[in-house]
Design brief:
The protein is an alpha+beta fold. The chain is built from six helices and five strands; from the N terminus they run H-E-H-E-H-E-H-E-E-H-H.
């Protein structure tokens, strides 16, 4: 029989994992086998810059946390897995996908977006979405274009009325 203290520690870890998954808008499971310490440090730094984090837990504890949340991601908790999570739904996906382009050892196993299981194809599609700042810039550019066109039209109309 396992020590009571060990069981309590494992229960705390399962609760910690479940809380992180529940509170995160974007969660990605990655296989990090083959990455060097420098590469993992670089990945962690990139994630921190985008308000995301990575943590490695035992698969059995991660599976228990997923089961407690009624989430079925059994294929993601096979082999060495790291949990990448963030309050932004797209940030961890973008960082991991961009990092995986340069480091073939890193591979995405699956993930959750806003609490819903997301396929690898959907994750790849989400990785192509511009950042929030990029989207806001595109929106502002579009709005400025409309205002510019309106001002030109009003100017032409006023010139026509003067003649």
């Amino acid at each position: 029989m396992a020590n009571k203290l060990i069981l309590e520690k494992k229960a705390e870890t399962v609760n910690e994992i479940a809380t992180k998954i529940k509170e995160s808008a974007g969660v990605v499971f990655v296989d990090y086998r083959g990455l060097t310490d420098e590469e993992l440090t670089s990945l962690r730094k990139s994630l921190r810059e985008n308000n995301a984090d990575v943590k490695v837990y035992k698969n059995t504890l991660t599976k228990r946390a997923l089961d407690s949340l009624n989430i079925s991601l059994d294929e993601c908790v096979v082999g060495p897995s790291a949990l990448v999570y963030s309050e932004d739904a797209v940030a961890p996906i973008k960082v991991v996908t961009n990092f995986a382009k340069d480091h073939e050892a890193l591979s995405v196993k699956g993930g959750l977006v806003d609490g819903k299981v997301t396929s690898l194809a959907e994750l790849a599609e989400l990785a192509t979405i511009p950042s929030r700042d990029g989207l806001l810039t595109m929106l502002a550019g579009g709005m400025i274009g409309i205002v510019k066109d309106l001002s030109i039209a009003l100017n032409l109309y006023s010139e026509q009325k003067e003649n």
